[in-house]
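TEACHING EXERCISE
Course module: macromolecular assemblies
Task: Read the component lines below, then compare them to the predicted structure of the full complex.
Student: A.B.
Group: 4
Components provided:
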Amino acid sequence: MKREIPLILTAIVGLTFVVQFFVPHYPMGFLADMFSDWFSIIAAAAIWLGALNLMRVSAEKIYKREKDRFYAGVTIASFFLIVIIGFFFSGGRSFQEPGTRFDWLYINIYTPLMATMFALLAFFVASASYRAFRARNAQATVLLLAAFVVMLGRTPFGDWISNVLFLPEGWGIANLSNIIMNYFNVAGQRAIMIGIALGIVSTSLRIILGIERTYLGGD
Amino acid sequence: MQRFLFLVVLIVVMPLLLWMAHERTIPGSEFFPPYDLSVISTPGDTAGSITLNWFKITGDDDGSMPLSRYTISRSENVGGPFTEIAQVEFKLPSPSLLTRQLRDTTAAVGQAYFFKIGAEVNGKVIESNVVGPVVAESAEQSGAVLEFQEILFPPTQLRAFDTPNDAGSSITLEWKISPNDVSKSAKFNGYDIYRSKEITGPFALIGDATGGESDLERHVKTFADGSNMDRKSAYYYYVEAKWDGQTARSNVAGPVKAGGQWFHTGRLVSLVLLGILVGTILWFINRAKSGRELFIRKIAGLEAVDEAVGRATEMGKKVFYIPGTQDMDNVQTIAGLTILSRVARLTAEYETKLEVPVSRSLVMVTAREVVKEAYLNAGRPDFYSDDMVYYLTDDQFGYAAGIDGMVVRQKPATIFYQGAFYAESLLLAETGNSIGAIQIAGTAMPAQLPFFVAACDYTLIGEELFAASAYLSREPKLLGSLKGQDIGGKLVFLTLALIFIAIVTFGAFASPELVAKVNSIFTVH
Amino acid sequence: MSNGPFGQKLFQALLRIDRRIIFLVIFLALSIPIFLGLRIDITVTQEVRLFYNSVEALSSGSRVLLSFDYDPGSEPELQPMAETGFRHLIKNHIKFIIMGLWPQGPMQANKALTRINEVDEGFLVDNGDTLYFGRDLLVVGPDTIRYGIDFINLGFQAGNELVIQRMGSSIRAAFANDARYGRPIDQFPIMNGLNKLSDFDLVINWSAGYPGTVEWVQFAVDRFHVPCGAGNTAVQAPQVYPYLDTGQLSGLMGGMKGGAEYEQLTGMRAKATMSMVSQTAAHIFVVLFIVIGNLAYFMTRGRKKEGRA
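Instructor-supplied answer key:
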């Protein structure tokens, strides 16, 4: 029984969503909306579960004097700082407006932290491409050349090179880059996307039919 | 042989099914009579005259047929006889962008008239609808006779019909726009929509629409009324154009009731395609159940799972498993968790430490269940603890920062990335690469695949991620579905592609209408 | 070419180069141009010109919906576009309504407005209302705009594409109150006659992922027939390119380069233009790294083969 009830629920909800795509009549749309709302409610309630878990795991690290306890302490302190300031010291519902304390934290702490993480990408892209872009065989060489053209074509430097090399109008590096992006890239992306779409249909079907049940914990 | 037969059946049957599935007429889309002639008694004219307005036909506005002309005829009876009263040449300038006007000053005051126009297009005379009766009235006050640009023409040919393919909560209105409704007009103020349950009224204002055409070919504007709709009552509507402080109202349309449909006709094609795909998958599942051996090509990334966990065991280090940054409603997350089940079983058998940091609470709950069950199945429930799966944060980069920190400090030997990833993909994979961990990634986010390929040892590309659970478990039913998806899906798409290429290539020469038709069949609604 | 023992050692060292050296070079390539204050001329692409033209085509007093669908992570790419976008709209006397499908989006809008505002002290009393500069009144160049009349912030609404769908039939069903004062939106003159999506003259969307441009095109453009222009992160832009060909998007800016082109068109050269030199330098160095890596790879590989023979 423990296994059957979730499977039946999955089948009902899954089929409802499939059917409502084809049947506009009441009550299909209503049911689909209701199930979506349920998901939102469960997910919202589950945030507490996650937050409590984070606090418990972090507190345990400090209590057991683990090596990482300093970071656990930072986690707990920042969590309470932002929650307390957001809830009680930032003017209630308009806490996101300019001038509130929450906004100050957002602009001066949260934003720089996020931007830093994102900025790391520039460095990681450089080191990853240094390591990975090697002309090991014919295919890799084609990939490499395409990457060169696209990278240069997206910067003013590409225009400059095109001028220096006297490339004819319409055949500059920027144009080549656009051709690669609009035709070769689009064709490849579409093939991958079609494969993915098929995979999603088949996986969803397995889940609705109850053939795939690993996600319920084992088979 | 079987594949060949399948292909033949597809090539023959599929176009037929699709053709049958294609709805021929969408309710409310039949064409208006050409020109859409509208006729009013000229406002402000004390002598009494009639002003005609009609929409230009193709060829009138682009100068391609300078020798053609419209002929305007008038009659005192609906049935005729019509006598020609004027001609308007295409090459004459017209005061408005979309329409042409004519003033009939020969009409006798008080007499009712009917009008129609004809135009010769490609040697064929196309006649408009007959409009009338209209009576020329002499204005009481003597004012200046208004120029054409100063007269407000009403919206015409208002039709109301039940909105197709909906749950029954709205009625769609469609009308030919007023000729005064030209884009960027400073004077035109949009339309007001009025509704009543009785044809005699009272009509109440229920909404407004901006100017502009919803359909550029037919010069119509559509409006869906879904406000306080009572499904049992029939409604009447009229539309009023607002222009420079004046209003002009259309005909009254109705009665019409809102009703729900049991099938979305615009999606019949999707249903047929889905049916073929699902049918193939089910057929192969059935075949697999009967015990036939199915060949599945080798997927290097999945073959390497055992080896990767084995290496962590040898080195006495941890295995990290990252199930993506999206929630349980994403299929990729579910696919990722099926691989987790396999990994957890291996770590249980090898007694290797496993950590699963997640970024969604629901994923945490599900992943715990998966890992627990795997340890139970491996006969090592004592090695399982809830703390193996823990939540970090929902925030994308916060999550990446947390994991990067742990990776650098704890130096796991093996890291799995299986699920949906965004910009954090390279931040995670490159950090893992820097500590020399074996990394196996899998995602169906096309934009993130290159990053994983560059920084990981193995990458499951798109559909390989979804194939993982069947591949790893070798369960016949799952393998069958995989095979069905592969053959059914690819053949469907291949056939479609061939049909399209053939139609577009040859149809472009033979019949542009056919190409347009195929386009309309595959337009998603 | 020198391929002696020294050359071999050099190439082998290059193959095993510490990634921190690469990081350092990229860091220098990115930061030095900022301090040198260099500028570089860029050519404007068709898609950015389309975006610019679709804003220019609006008559003054038109109302535009701005959807902020990104968070601080994508700020370097999208914030310059957002700031220039605001300046462009204000200069052309176009009113704007701000919303967000991402919770952090409206805060990013506030941040951009605070940045372009030139007066943030003092107040005015109008009709009994106290209006603070920097909050209710923003001064940008010769123009002063007022909250509730020239612009409004509706805030964030959860529900992703369902929010767009709801706005298609009723804006008030999706956003009952404004975000700043929590008052019913009918109390603000700017909302007069704005009932549903098709009442807007243009939708502009700054997007860094899901939900974003794809959803705006699929719901707002296809179903409710509002023109939509978009600014995207460079990674995401290739994904929405197809919508440009079909005319579903009336303009597209991709990444910092798109932002710089937009700045060039509006004549308001700012952050994105400044960053173009850095970005170009970084690109050149990445290309150089790849060349060096491949050179080292070929030289050492050739040697191994010779050795084996």
